[in-house]
């Protein structure tokens, strides 16, 4: 599970990031709306912790954008505002929860777990192809396809951005924990695995190479 923390209080964001990592969550930290939008463009998140007041604007204004792109991504607003009207405003904007600062981390953790437990599924279904990111499972015409690890994550990321061209750099940044420590050819290896284990045996084309630009998920194009 991956969480995006959009919070400009450095001490708080560091505490949240470290605590969530200890609990097994992958997370990224953004300190402004601009940084938050950057991460949302390159990565998929199961949940977002969103501060209300940010240096470049109102965090609540970002919620409709999040819900339009990823309606199943849960959003929890963190705010020092303790009035009823602010809570109502955030929930009306599309927030899934509202937590007032200061808060207890253990309580926040329970709220996060509840939202992820009862949140919507991120399963991708396109014609006869089903990709289940939560279980790392692919099914095509009722048959389970053995594709795991980074190739599965690459396929899933491209499928979530269907018809968009995604560069190698964007894939590295979205999937690898320390993209600066790996070379871009790991993407080519992952794409080759997808084609060998899925496309060729099934007679389909899932990923198109766009010369000098990157890759595009193009299923249900036929081989």
From TrEMBL:
Q: What is this protein called?
A: Two component transcriptional regulator, winged helix family
Gene3D superfamilies linked to this entry: 3.40.50.2300, Winged helix-like DNA-binding domain superfamily/Winged helix DNA-binding domain
Domain Response regulatory, first and last residues per copy: 2-116
OmpR/PhoB-type domain mapped to chain residues:
121-219
Question: What is an example of a GO molecular function annotated in this UniProt entry?
Answer: phosphorelay response regulator activity
Q: Domain of life, per the record?
A: Bacteria
Name the UniProt key words of this record, in alphabetical order: DNA-binding, Phosphoprotein, Transcription, Transcription regulation, Two-component regulatory system
Which residue ranges does the Swiss-Prot or TrEMBL entry mark as DNA-binding? 121-219
Q: Does the keyword Metal-binding apply?
A: no
Q: Which CDD domains match?
A: REC_HP-RR-like, trans_reg_C
Query: One Pfam family this chain carries?
Result: Trans_reg_C
Modified residues annotated as 4-aspartylphosphate in this record: 51
GO biological process, alphabetically ordered: regulation of DNA-templated transcription
List the top taxonomic levels of the source. Bacteria, Pseudomonadati, Campylobacterota, Epsilonproteobacteria, Campylobacterales
Recorded GO CC terms = cytosol; protein-DNA complex
């Amino acid at each position: 599970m991956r969480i995006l923390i959009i919070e400009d209080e450095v001490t708080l964001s560091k505490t949240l990031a470290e605590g969530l990592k200890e609990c097994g969550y992958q997370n990224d930290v953004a300190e402004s709306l601009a940084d938050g939008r950057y991460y949302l463009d390159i990565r998929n998140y199961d949940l977002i912790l969103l501060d209300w007041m940010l240096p470049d604007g109102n965090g609540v204004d970002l919620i409709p954008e999040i819900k339009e792109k990823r309606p199943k991504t849960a959003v929890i607003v963190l705010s020092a505002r303790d009035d009823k009207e602010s809570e109502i405003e955030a929930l009306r904007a599309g927030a899934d929860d509202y937590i007032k600062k200061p808060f207890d981390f253990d309580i926040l953790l329970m709220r996060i777990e509840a939202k992820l437990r009862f949140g919507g599924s991120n399963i991708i279904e396109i014609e006869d192809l089903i990709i289940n990111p939560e279980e790392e499972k692919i099914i095509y015409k009722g048959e389970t396809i053995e594709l795991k690890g980074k190739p599965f994550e690459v396929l899933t990321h491209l499928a979530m951005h269907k018809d968009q061209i995604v560069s190698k750099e964007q894939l590295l940044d979205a999937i690898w924990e320390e993209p600066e420590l790996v070379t871009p050819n790991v993407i080519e290896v992952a794409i080759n695995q997808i084609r060998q284990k899925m496309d060729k045996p099934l007679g389909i084309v899932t990923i198109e190479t766009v010369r000098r630009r990157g890759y595009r998920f193009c299923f249900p194009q036929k081989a």
